[in-house]
Design goal:
The chain has about 200 residues and is an alpha/beta fold. The chain has one domain: 3-Layer(aba) Sandwich (Rossmann fold). About 50% of the residues lie in helices and about 20% in strands. The chain has eight helices and seven strands, in the order E-H-E-H-H-H-E-E-E-H-E-H-H-E-H. Strand 4 and strand 5 form a beta hairpin. Helix 1 packs across helix 8, helix 2 crosses helix 4 and helix 6 crosses helix 7. The structure holds adenosine-5'-triphosphate and magnesium ion. The site of magnesium ion has 2 residues, from helix 1. Adenosine-5'-triphosphate (ATP) binds next to helix 1.
Length: about 200
């Protein structure tokens, strides 16, 4: 598919918990606003929850425990809503997968990609030791504590899942390393990958 340079960007940014997505996206938005770009950010999970609340679901925990079919329904509702946004740059903050008892549940199955039509996939990673320390230090969040070995495995699965999204959609995937204390530099790399 050939895209014109003027086309709006729909940029999917994934990363395992604690890799620094939210911090990085705030910096990216700051830089893009300085460049007079009209940018919006959606956390896919938050949009799903908003849709679920309209149908009587109380909170994230109740959403997480619904049947796979019901969750799929809310995934589709969220993707449909985000797909309608017309900003110059629409950033989607999400996860390549969600850890479940059944295994890795894809955050971006084909039916979501078909609705969202992302122009770019960005996979944020960081050194496993840094992710581990960030999860431990971040007092604002109630994060699952996992081992360094599981973090390494999750990083590998993340790139494998995102590669499939790239192949299926025909949109490029860019892996970006979020180095400790280098948020500005990392944000610039992501913006460059967006072609802005
Ligand atoms: P989640 O998927 O759980 O929402 P996240 O990927 O959005 O996680 P953040 O909340 O952005 O992660 O970051 C986790 C912690 O790491 C925060 O305390 C943040 O300040 C810190 N952090 C992120 N990037 C860097 C960096 N490059 N250098 C130092 N600290 C960082
Ligand atoms: Mg976050």
């Amino acid at each position: 598919m050939v895209r014109s340079l003027e086309e709006n960007k729909k940029v999917v940014i994934v990363g395992i918990p604690g890799v620094g997505k939210t911090t990085l996206i705030s910096k990216i938005v700051e830089i893009l606003k300085e460049k007079q770009k009209n940018v919006s950010v959606y956390s896919f999970g938050t949009v799903m929850l908003e849709e679920a609340k309209n149908e009587g679901i109380a909170d994230r925990d109740e959403l997480r425990k619904l049947s796979v079919d019901r969750q799929k329904h809310f995934q589709i509702m969220a993707a449909t809503k985000i797909a309608l946004k017309t900003n110059d740059v629409v950033i989607i903050d999400t996860h390549a997968f969600i850890n479940t008892n059944e295994g890795f549940h894809p955050g971006l199955p084909l039916y979501v990609i078909d609705l969202l039509k992302p122009t770019n996939f960005i996979s944020i990673s960081a050194r496993p030791e840094e992710i581990y320390n960030r999860r431990m230090k971040d007092g604002t969040r109630n994060r699952d504590i996992i081992s360094l070995a599981s973090i390494k495995k999750e990083l590998a699965v993340q790139d494998a899942m995102l590669s499939s999204c790239s192949v299926l959609s025909g949109s490029p995937m860019k892996p970006v390393l979020n180095r400790e204390g280098k948020i500005d530099e990392t944000a610039m790399k992501v913006i460059k990958a967006m072609g802005i």
